[in-house]
Amino acid sequence: MKAFYVEKLAHPNDIPISLNAPTPIPKEGEVLVDVYSAGLNFFDILQCQGKYQKRPALPFVAGTEFAGRVSRNSPIPPGCPFKRGDRVFGATQGAFAEVVAVPCLTLLPLPDVVSFKDGGGLYVTWPTSYEALVGRGQLQAGEWVLVTAAAGGVGVAAVQIAKALGAKVIAAAGSDEKVDIAMRYGGADYGINYANPGWPKEVMKLTGGKGVDVVYDAVGLVKDSLKCVAWKARILVVGFASGTIDQVPMNIVLLKNISVVGLHWGGYEKSEPARIAVVWKELLDMLATGKIKPVNYTQHFTLDTIKDGLAALETRKTWGKAIMEVRKEFEAAL
Ligand SMILES: NC(=O)c1ccc[n+]([C@@H]2O[C@H](COP(=O)([O-])OP(=O)(O)OC[C@H]3O[C@@H](n4cnc5c(N)ncnc54)[C@H](OP(=O)(O)O)[C@@H]3O)[C@@H](O)[C@H]2O)c1
């Protein structure tokens, strides 16, 4: 099968697309899924180079998030709620391929209103932002939220979810164009460009001198954000897209009664599996009722151009979710 098949660790630019990668053989409890679309993530780039915490044995197929249909020749394990041909989405190692093997019980049904294209970037991105804001941040309607990298994959999802929950949202991004995108597609109330030094002062001004109640940070801007938070603020540590891991001055954490809260969505499978279904029930309801809507980067990629997609992601050119089309029908919803 055609796949982004890593035989030797390297930067994605230096990995050729394979036309004869082995079709996966499903293990016990797994089904085969025909991949229609896949979501691109920064960690895919790291993994190809052996720089990510999850290091599959070589050779492996790269990619994680996908949407597709249970294959016509797939085994259906006992207790599997899906049948051949069902529309599904999920995440597992090997999504940058025509076919992926995936534990059946981790799959979710792709809602009728959601196209394969939109479904390809749901599985990691949306629950990360939901659980950060709701489960960890205890976000309440009427509170002020600052979202960094607000036009990015998890960021624009966080903006939409915070708005759907009734918060007042300040979208922060690294260029005026991205601020505009976060406001247009995320529905943020205000936008600020953190390329401007002194941006926390703008946040203080917007909040009438109070500061924000919640910071959602996927960049590594915790230290700067401490300058514009309210009493009892919650700072959600979601990622370090800038490559910088903040050193936080604990005296400010103490003085303002701040909670610094981590979120590792990938850790729920092992540490808190029951919470996963709760989060997805909420998100699928929000999707079905149109309260949230996936946002995709305008250009989509294919297995032949996946390297361009990963390069665009790596150089901060993309916004929303960068998506790869694997089969032609990927725009289809029911
Ligand atoms: N905790 C979890 O469970 C979890 C789950 C998923 C993702 N994450 C993490 O969240 C972060 C964002 O993920 P994403 O999927 O939203 O990525 P993304 O779509 O690529 O967005 C990342 C954004 O970060 C900003 N950024 C600032 N400095 C950057 C730099 N030096 N290099 C690259 N980007 C930079 C860019 O926006 P501007 O140009 O506007 O600054 C960029 O668009 C990643 O670190 C990812 O690993 C964490």
Automatic annotation (TrEMBL):
GO cellular component, one term: mitochondrion
Protein name per UniProt: NAD(P)-binding protein
Transmembrane segments: none
Molecular functions per Gene Ontology: oxidoreductase activity; zinc ion binding
Pfam family, one: ADH_N
Origin organism lineage: Eukaryota, Fungi, Dikarya, Basidiomycota, Agaricomycotina
Signal peptide: none
SUPFAM superfamilies xrefs: GroES-like, NAD(P)-binding Rossmann-fold domains
Domain Enoyl reductase (ER): 10-324
